[in-house]
């Protein structure tokens, strides 16, 4: 999908992610990634932020995050309105014979604007983690998550 960025991550990284999402423009609208996420994934617990989901067990980060405690991030662009209608989290071609570069270039992200946006978001996450003298973890969000 190509509607808005959906993220899941360790609570330690949430504030860093919000900061990055406010700095990267949405690929198709005159607003930031953060603004777009606020429309589709508004967090009812924290009124001024969008929802960042908990990491599950269904991906390659599982061993790093669940067994060794390495903070991780999972992100993808989703067609959020269709996710709610069809109760799905992936595009219909995911992990099928039709999940090809042809499909991507002709039907999903013809000009690679969404791909470029995801790359910008990911690289800015890494830059902020690498360039700060102190690792920008937010311990209070981790405490709040543990207390839930």
UniProtKB/TrEMBL annotation:
GO terms for molecular function: carboxypeptidase activity. InterPro entries: Peptidase_M28B. This is Peptidase M28 domain-containing protein. The lineage of its organism: Eukaryota, Metazoa, Cnidaria, Hydrozoa, Hydroidolina.
């Amino acid at each position: 999908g190509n509607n808005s960025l959906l993220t899941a991550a360790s609570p330690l990284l949430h504030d860093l992610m919000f900061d990055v999402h406010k700095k990267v423009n949405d690929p198709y609208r005159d607003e930031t990634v953060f603004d777009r996420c606020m429309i589709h994934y508004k967090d009812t617990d924290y009124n001024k932020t969008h929802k960042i989901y908990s990491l599950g067990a269904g991906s390659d980060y599982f061993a790093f995050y669940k067994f060794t405690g390495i903070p991780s991030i999972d992100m993808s662009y989703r067609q959020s309105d269709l996710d709610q209608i069809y109760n799905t989290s992936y595009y219909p071609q995911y992990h099928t014979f039709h999940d090809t570069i042809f499909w991507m270039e002709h039907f999903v992200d013809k000009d690679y604007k969404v791909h470029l946006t995801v790359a910008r978001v990911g690289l800015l996450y890494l830059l902020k983690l690498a360039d700060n003298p102190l690792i920008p973890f937010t311990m209070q969000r981790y405490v709040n998550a543990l207390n839930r």
